[in-house]
């Protein structure tokens, strides 16, 4: 696909950052508002898919030199690994904990271990979705 | 302090590290791996005094409490013997493999499989929970499969791997069924608790079926007749693997199981007869067949089969001791178990050494065929010495450890004749006769190993390589085993007092004092029946060995050539053909046919079930009122759905599909489920992008011409499937089988600190689901990637068909 659409290129450059920001926001706010690892990961990967559609694969790979298979594998390891983290503290597998901390900039903040688990989920989603789309699109 | 639970997991953790170390220092990988069994061996050895003083250790971790499955590890006399064998022989085998395998092999795979096996094996012997034991049990089968198929470009390796896998795994599944039956009887998966409840279950109707199924698992794993056929083919594995898995450890898992479950089933006549008769016949059959082998490794494989049969039969006889409490008689029969445990240890030492010797001969002379070998004594003096020690020990000659356990074996077999239980009568004489015959053949093949390989005429032109002695490093491991063989002969009671006596208490949990009542092992036990039997074995064995060429043609007689292997191969071909036929009838390659099958099956089962249980009851009183918005949405979706059938271009169809998806998202918005709405929208967007990608490369859509009759059938199936789903949706409200689970999430904020209940359910309450979903997603992604990317590569390793 050789499309050289200037408007699309320009707008994409802008929009991708908006989508990415939105994805991160969704991910972080997940504990108390709509969002979370899965949806955050999906939004992040949709931004990447948009990049792949508008620019060609080589260009994007130059900008984001990531092996998305490894991203997915890392995600799975993270998700399973945080489960074992609980075992280390003597709790049952996948037990989550939370507590509020008084952080210098953010003030009173709640930190939960489930966020780490969600990081794994998000990474897996991003890695898998992009891997699937890339392998299908490269198979020409 | 090393706990047993940790000991099980250390090999697995090390296996994860292996690929990284391999990348860093490919040549040193074996030395790094060697650390693992050494540390474990030292750690386990520290428990010997504890265990010898009669103490046991239990370490329980809750795993799936709702199903009574706990990760309970249990250390007692029996499991520590196996643990020491696994780690001890494991260390030597890894040391040996460092020199055996060239650095061009895929060493990281090899050591990952080997460590995986080691962990699984430790799991088998230390687990108290039957379900956990089963998981590890099958894991040993899988790692054995991977190791046998290590040289997968050879057809024979793949064949052997498949054979061992099919036989041992199906036995394992039978064993699982047996375990579940035990659970049905006692309500516990714990082996110790089952043993404690032994008296209550003996008369139960499931007792015998459970016993038979558990024995199936044990017999397939330990290569007992008629399941022994996989072991010779497993010899396609690299020699260190054969030495480790197929003689010293894995095949003994079945023996372990029999010893462990003696506490549950022992004392019953069926157990006594099945185990001892299968064992004694395997002993005879294995040794008889070993003599005709010309490949040294195949010979050792059959010899392993027969020795496993020997140990098995001794455990069978020993179980008689449980029949009538503690008495002089029970001590007499318990001697058999004592001999079994002793021979178990001895066998690991001399057979491990012999396998390593064969590996050295194979590597440094280029062949394992005894017809081509000969006269290696002067060329390989060290190897020769170890071979003598190993073979003579196997043949049961002094001053080697095999002599001691062989004498105890004969004594036990002679004692059977006086057995008063189980109405054995004059049939008991069959035991010493078969045992003696088996030993004669054992003597013959032991002599074949030594004399045909190392004596006689050296024929360098018939060897692939110029024969020479192995490098020093390669000789260390077999030398240590050889030294052990001799050392155990002179100091047998070190093992006897510290390992075997505590193990006796583990095999006979209801007779804890029995271990102490055993006589110490004596090197010279006087001119009794057993000694005369040994003298007979030596004389007759020697005569038969000399005349080998005259009577070997015996093996070519018709019924002897007709063997179980051809039965196995025939069955395999039949299954393959049958499944091909069956598959070809329904795999037409047309998606619409598959839909017909899927929905037809769905209709039959679901509608049928609902009809039979009377699930068609409706109750609309609790339903929420339907608003105008919802009517409109449903109308839009229905229009889109119906239109989709009739449109002729793909793009329109995709757009209509999108309409459906986004309408569902709107529904979620209406019902205040923003999370779901968001997810739905993004998924819809990403799938549309995917569709567009695929689209670009598809040919133009053509309307196919379908016969009217099948159109009608398809229409009927489609409409009824739709109706069924609708009816189910409507009937759900009318059938409340369980309480609502919503109360479970009532304190979500207090428990998790999260205000978004969807997320707390996903991440906190039901994180296990989410975790596995993520894993599934990942596997699906890898699946797509491999399907598309990894088309058969050209070049690389040639694979024989």
TrEMBL record, chain A:
<protein>
    <submittedName>
        <fullName>Multiple resistance and pH homeostasis protein B</fullName>
    </submittedName>
</protein>
<dbReference type="Pfam" id="PF04039">
    <property type="entry name" value="MnhB"/>
</dbReference>
<keyword id="KW-1133">Transmembrane helix</keyword>
<feature type="domain" description="Na+/H+ antiporter MnhB subunit-related protein">
    <location>
        <begin position="7"/>
        <end position="131"/>
    </location>
</feature>
<dbReference type="InterPro" id="IPR007182">
    <property type="entry name" value="MnhB"/>
</dbReference>
<dbReference type="InterPro" id="IPR050622">
    <property type="entry name" value="CPA3_antiporter_subunitB"/>
</dbReference>
<keyword id="KW-0472">Membrane</keyword>
<comment type="similarity">
    <text>Belongs to the CPA3 antiporters (TC 2.A.63) subunit B family.</text>
</comment>
<feature type="transmembrane region" description="Helical">
    <location>
        <begin position="35"/>
        <end position="55"/>
    </location>
</feature>
<keyword id="KW-0812">Transmembrane</keyword>
<feature type="transmembrane region" description="Helical">
    <location>
        <begin position="7"/>
        <end position="29"/>
    </location>
</feature>
<feature type="transmembrane region" description="Helical">
    <location>
        <begin position="71"/>
        <end position="91"/>
    </location>
</feature>
<feature type="transmembrane region" description="Helical">
    <location>
        <begin position="111"/>
        <end position="136"/>
    </location>
</feature>
<dbReference type="GO" id="GO:0005886">
    <property type="term" value="C:plasma membrane"/>
</dbReference>
<keyword id="KW-1003">Cell membrane</keyword>
TrEMBL record, chain B:
<feature type="transmembrane region" description="Helical">
    <location>
        <begin position="338"/>
        <end position="361"/>
    </location>
</feature>
<feature type="domain" description="MrpA C-terminal/MbhD">
    <location>
        <begin position="636"/>
        <end position="700"/>
    </location>
</feature>
<feature type="transmembrane region" description="Helical">
    <location>
        <begin position="677"/>
        <end position="699"/>
    </location>
</feature>
<dbReference type="InterPro" id="IPR001516">
    <property type="entry name" value="Proton_antipo_N"/>
</dbReference>
<keyword id="KW-0406">Ion transport</keyword>
<dbReference type="GO" id="GO:0006814">
    <property type="term" value="P:sodium ion transport"/>
</dbReference>
<keyword id="KW-1133">Transmembrane helix</keyword>
<dbReference type="Pfam" id="PF13244">
    <property type="entry name" value="MbhD"/>
</dbReference>
<feature type="transmembrane region" description="Helical">
    <location>
        <begin position="271"/>
        <end position="291"/>
    </location>
</feature>
<feature type="transmembrane region" description="Helical">
    <location>
        <begin position="29"/>
        <end position="48"/>
    </location>
</feature>
<keyword id="KW-0915">Sodium</keyword>
<feature type="transmembrane region" description="Helical">
    <location>
        <begin position="78"/>
        <end position="98"/>
    </location>
</feature>
<comment type="similarity">
    <text>Belongs to the CPA3 antiporters (TC 2.A.63) subunit A family.</text>
</comment>
<dbReference type="InterPro" id="IPR046806">
    <property type="entry name" value="MrpA_C/MbhE"/>
</dbReference>
<keyword id="KW-0739">Sodium transport</keyword>
<dbReference type="GO" id="GO:0005886">
    <property type="term" value="C:plasma membrane"/>
</dbReference>
<feature type="transmembrane region" description="Helical">
    <location>
        <begin position="472"/>
        <end position="491"/>
    </location>
</feature>
<feature type="transmembrane region" description="Helical">
    <location>
        <begin position="654"/>
        <end position="671"/>
    </location>
</feature>
<dbReference type="InterPro" id="IPR050616">
    <property type="entry name" value="CPA3_Na-H_Antiporter_A"/>
</dbReference>
<keyword id="KW-0472">Membrane</keyword>
<dbReference type="Pfam" id="PF20501">
    <property type="entry name" value="MbhE"/>
</dbReference>
<keyword id="KW-0812">Transmembrane</keyword>
């Amino acid at each position: 696909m050789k499309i050289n659409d200037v408007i699309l290129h320009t707008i994409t450059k802008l929009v991708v950052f908006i989508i990415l920001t939105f994805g991160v926001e969704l991910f972080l706010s997940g504990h108390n508002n709509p969002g979370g690892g899965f949806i955050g990961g999906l939004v992040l990967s949709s931004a990447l898919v948009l990049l792949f559609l508008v620019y060609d694969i080589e260009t994007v790979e130059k900008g984001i030199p990531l092996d998305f298979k490894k991203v997915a594998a890392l995600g799975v390891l993270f998700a399973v690994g945080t489960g074992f983290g609980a075992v280390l503290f003597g709790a049952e597998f996948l037990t989550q904990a939370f507590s509020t901390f008084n952080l210098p900039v953010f003030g009173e903040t709640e930190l939960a271990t489930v966020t780490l688990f969600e990081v794994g989920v998000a990474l897996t989603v991003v890695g898998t979705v992009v891997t699937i789309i890339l392998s299908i699109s490269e198979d020409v | 302090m090393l706990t047993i639970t940790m000991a099980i997991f250390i090999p697995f953790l090390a296996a994860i590290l292996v690929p990284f170390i391999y990348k860093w220092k490919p040549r040193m990988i074996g030395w790094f791996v060697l650390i693992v069994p050494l540390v474990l061996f030292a750690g386990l050895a520290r428990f010997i005094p504890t265990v010898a003083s009669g103490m046991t250790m239990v370490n329980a971790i809750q795993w799936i409490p709702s199903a009574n499955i706990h990760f309970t590890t249990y250390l007692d006399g029996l499991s520590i013997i196996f643990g020491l064998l696994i780690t001890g022989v494991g260390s030597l085998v890894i040391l040996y493999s460092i020199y055996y395998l060239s650095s061009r092999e895929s060493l990281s795979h090899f050591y990952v499989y080997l460590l995986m096996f080691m962990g699984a094996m430790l799991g088998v012997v230390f687990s108290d929970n039957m379900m956990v034991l089963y998981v590890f049990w099958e894991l040993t089968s899988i790692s054995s499969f991977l190791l046998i198929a290590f040289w997968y470009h050879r057809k024979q390796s793949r064949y052997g791997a498949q054979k061992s896998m099919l036989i041992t795994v199906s036995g394992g599944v039978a064993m699982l069924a047996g375990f579940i039956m035990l659970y049905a009887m006692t309500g516990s998966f714990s082996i110790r608790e089952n043993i404690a409840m032994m008296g209550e279950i003996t008369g139960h109707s499931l007792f015998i079926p459970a016993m038979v199924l558990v024995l199936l698992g044990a017999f397939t794993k330990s290569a007992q007749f008629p399941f022994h056929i996989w072991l010779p083919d497993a010899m396609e594995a690299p020699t260190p693997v054969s030495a480790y898995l197929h003689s010293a450890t894995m095949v003994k898992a079945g023996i372990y199981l029999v010893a462990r479950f003696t506490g549950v089933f022992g004392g019953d006549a069926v157990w006594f007869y099945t185990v001892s008769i299968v064992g004694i016949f395997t002993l005879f059959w294995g040794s008889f067949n070993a003599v005709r082998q010309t490949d040294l490794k195949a010979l050792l494989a059959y010899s392993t089969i027969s020795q496993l049969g020997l140990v098995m039969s001794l455990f069978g006889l020993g179980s008689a001791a449980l029949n009538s409490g503690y008495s002089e008689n029970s001590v007499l029969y318990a001697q058999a178990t004592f001999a079994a445990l002793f021979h178990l240890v001895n066998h690991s030492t001399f057979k491990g050494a012999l396998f390593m010797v064969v590996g050295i001969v194979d590597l440094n002379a280029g062949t394992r065929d005894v017809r081509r070998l000969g006269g290696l004594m002067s060329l390989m003096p060290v190897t020769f010495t170890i071979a003598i020690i190993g073979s003579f020990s196997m043949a049961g000659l002094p001053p080697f450890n095999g002599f001691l356990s062989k004498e105890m074996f004969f004594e036990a077999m002679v004692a059977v004749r006086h057995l008063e239980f189980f109405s054995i009568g004059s049939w008991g004489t069959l035991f010493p006769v078969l045992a003696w015959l088996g030993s004669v053949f054992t003597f013959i093949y032991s002599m074949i190993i030594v004399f045909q390989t190392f004596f006689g005429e050296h024929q360098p032109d018939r060897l692939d390589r110029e024969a020479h002695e192995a490098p020093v490093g390669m000789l260390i491991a077999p030398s240590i085993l050889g030294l052990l063989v001799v050392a155990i002969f002179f100091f047998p009671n070190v093992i006897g007092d510290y390992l075997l006596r505590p193990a006796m208490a583990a095999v006979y949990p209801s007779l804890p004092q029995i271990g102490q009542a055993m006589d110490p092992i004596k090197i010279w036990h006087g001119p009794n029946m057993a000694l005369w039997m040994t003298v007979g074995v030596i004389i007759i064995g020697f005569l038969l060995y000399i005349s080998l060429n005259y009577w070997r043609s015996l093996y070519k007689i018709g019924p002897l050539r007709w063997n179980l292997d051809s039965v196995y191969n025939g069955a395999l071909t039949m299954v393959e053909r049958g499944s091909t036929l069956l598959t070809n009838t329904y795999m037409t390659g047309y998606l619409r046919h598959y839909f017909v099958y899927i929905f037809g099956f769905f209709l039959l089962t679901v509608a049928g079930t609902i009809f039979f249980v009377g699930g068609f009851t409706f109750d609309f009183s609790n339903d929420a009122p339907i608003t105008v918005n919802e009517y409109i949405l449903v109308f839009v979706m229905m229009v889109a759905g119906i239109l989709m059938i009739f449109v002729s271009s793909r793009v329109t169809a995709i757009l209509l599909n999108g309409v459906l998806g986004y309408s569902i998202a709107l529904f979620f918005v209406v019902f205040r489920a923003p999370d779901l709405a968001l997810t739905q929208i993004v998924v819809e967007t990403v799938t549309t992008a995917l569709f567009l990608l695929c689209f670009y490369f598809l040919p133009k859509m053509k309307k196919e011409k379908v016969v009217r009759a099948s159109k009608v059938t398809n229409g009927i199936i489609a409409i009824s499937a739709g109706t069924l789903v609708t009816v189910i949706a409507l009937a759900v409200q009318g059938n409340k089988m369980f309480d609502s689970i919503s109360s479970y999430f009532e304190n979500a904020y207090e428990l998790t600190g999260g205000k978004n209940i969807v997320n707390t359910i996903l991440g906190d309450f039901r994180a296990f689901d989410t975790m596995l979903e993520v894993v599934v997603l990942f596997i699906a992604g890898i699946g797509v990637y491999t399907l598309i990317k990894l088309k058969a590569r050209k070049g690389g390793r040639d694979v024989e068909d």
